[in-house]
């Protein structure tokens, strides 16, 4: 694209360019790293991740380039604050409250409306999210989330205040959706609306299938778009990609969360757009960050989708079988196994990764879903039991 790209990543600053990408080492949770970025002359900024989005917003303000406001990016990273802003904007919000980890579950369980959902304030992709149907399940879920936040290696090094709280919300019945969009001067442009065909009833909420276009009726689709636009305005998001999750039931559209970043992982490969030529989502986002008009972008169809291959059990990944058969299923475009031999696999709610991704295209959303399920059925994974190590 002819763009000179500078990366800012949270790599160890004591290592000399370990990935050969000339990236600037930063700490996403430390504002002093802004000094490394503020003096740079750049034309645009993009963040791919929730914590990076907060630093990117603060850096953009200092650099004088458009991006989401820092307050909005921080609200996206704090489920309690986001709920307050949605409520103030008149959006449907379930009964919610937060409780400090140190307080324990006993008193909090008395305040909960069952069934309820417990979730960490600052994590995404359903990590740490657990449904509880009574006080006993509440106590078990609370302890499980507390252990995750206090002992997970990737979270222990973070100093985020959000990791000291658990949010409790009334469980919302309904069908779940995801919306991919881009915001220009506070106005949301919808790029894709995904159905999540699998029921997400708990006790954990592992996302697997995303299929677009949505098969909901026009009125429901418009209601989802309207709610997402109101959420963007409530959070104060101004310029850049957004990814929103929501549930729909007879009471309306309930925004679960809005992120100041694009869709995560490799899922963007499911989306291609007509913008003059055919371009991937990443190129569209870069063009927008540089000030180009992307309002005419149209999603290439007729239908596409992705399966985030779930981890069936914890253990040590050994190998996958059936990749060729999965790739041969009609409609499948790509089979990517991202797990590596010897890798420790941790399923939800503690884990934050998948075994890989399946991508499909077809003449209809139903055909895409059938292709993804058929390809997944061809895959078989060898996962060895992980041995616990005791030191003393």
Spatial shape: globular
Measured between the Cα atoms of the first and last residue, the distance is 55 Å
**Oligomeric status:** single chain
CATH class of the domain at 302-392: Alpha Beta
Unreliable stretches (pLDDT < 50, length at least 5) are none
Strand content: 25-35%
Helix content: 25-40%
Structure class: alpha+beta
The CATH superfamily title of the domain at 302-392: ATP-grasp fold, B domain
The main pleated sheet reads as: 4 strands, antiparallel
Radius of gyration: 21 Å
CATH architecture annotation of the domain at 302-392: 2-Layer Sandwich
Average pLDDT confidence is: 93
CATH topology label of the domain at 302-392: D-amino Acid Aminotransferase, Chain A, domain 1
Number of helices: 11
Could you list some keywords that capture this structure?
single chain; about 400 residues; alpha+beta; Dna Ligase, domain 1; D-amino Acid Aminotransferase, Chain A, domain 1; four-stranded antiparallel β-sheet
């Amino acid at each position: 694209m002819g763009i000179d790209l500078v990366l800012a990543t949270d790599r160890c600053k004591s290592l000399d360019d370990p990935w050969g990408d000339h990236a600037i080492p930063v700490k996403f949770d430390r504002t002093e790293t802004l000094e490394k970025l503020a003096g740079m002359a750049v034309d645009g900024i993009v963040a791919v991740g929730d914590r990076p989005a907060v630093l990117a917003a603060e850096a953009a303000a200092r650099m004088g380039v458009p991006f989401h406001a820092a307050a909005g990016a921080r609200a996206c990273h704090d489920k309690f604050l986001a709920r307050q802003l949605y409520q103030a904007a008149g959006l449907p919000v379930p009964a919610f409250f937060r409780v400090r980890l140190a307080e324990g579950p006993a008193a909090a369980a008395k305040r909960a409306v069952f069934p309820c959902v417990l979730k960490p304030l600052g994590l995404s992709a359903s990590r740490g999210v657990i449904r509880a149907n009574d006080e006993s399940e509440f106590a078990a879920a609370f302890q499980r989330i507390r252990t995750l936040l206090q002992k997970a290696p990737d979270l222990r090094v973070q100093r985020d205040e959000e990791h000291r709280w658990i949010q409790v919300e009334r469980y919302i019945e309904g069908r779940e959706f995801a919306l991919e969009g881009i915001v220009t001067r506070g106005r949301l442009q919808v790029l894709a609306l995904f159905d999540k065909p699998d029921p997400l009833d708990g006790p954990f909420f592992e996302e697997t299938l995303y299929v677009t276009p949505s098969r909901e009726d026009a009125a429901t689709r418009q209601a989802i778009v309207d709610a997402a636009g109101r959420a963007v305005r409530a959070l104060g998001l101004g310029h850049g990609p957004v990814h929103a999750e929501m549930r729909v039931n007879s009471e309306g559209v309930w925004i679960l969360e809005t992120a100041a970043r694009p869709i995560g992982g490799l899922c963007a490969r499911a989306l291609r757009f007509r913008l003059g030529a055919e371009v991937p989502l990443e190129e569209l986002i870069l063009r927008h960050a540089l000030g180009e008009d992307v309002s005419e972008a149209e999603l290439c169809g007729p239908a596409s989708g992705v399966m985030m291959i779930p981890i069936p059990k914890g253990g040590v990944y050994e190998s996958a079988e059936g990749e060729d058969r999965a790739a041969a299923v009609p409609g499948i475009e790509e089979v990517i196994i991202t797990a590596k031999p010897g890798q420790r696999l941790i399923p939800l709610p503690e884990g934050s990764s998948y075994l890989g991704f399946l991508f499909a295209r077809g003449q209809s959303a139903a055909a895409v879903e059938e292709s993804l399920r058929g390809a997944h059925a061809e895959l078989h994974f060898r996962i060895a039991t992980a041995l616990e190590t005791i030191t003393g």
